[in-house]
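Hi, here's the filled form for the chain we discussed.

Project: internal
Contact: R.S.
Residues: 121
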Amino acid sequence: MKKIMLILPLLFILSGCRLLDTYVGNKIDYADQKIDDATNYNKLKEVEDTARAMIANYKNDLVVYETYKDSASEEERSWSQQAKIRANKTAHTYNEYIRKNSYRWKGNVPADIDSNLEIVR
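And the returned structure, exactly as it came back:
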């Protein structure tokens, strides 16, 4: 009987520690989740902003290419070729970037972000 009286308080203490550990653990998990969510949102925003900037550069280079590709001026045709090279480099980089980061949207890609930029031929 004395052993039971000694063990019983010990069991209560241990079960109380387990409950406290679970409570504190859940609070930490919740805090970690909030930090994770904020980090994921910030990274998603960064990916979207980068993609939009690349699209803008690509479109600007396409305009230059289309404007000067048939020019009578050798210099303007040179501008056109340089713009074409930049557009193709941007398209290649963009396509790879989107491929590597597509998981971030979980199928909900914003309408203004293209899934692929075409290579200029």
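Let me know if anything looks off before we file it.
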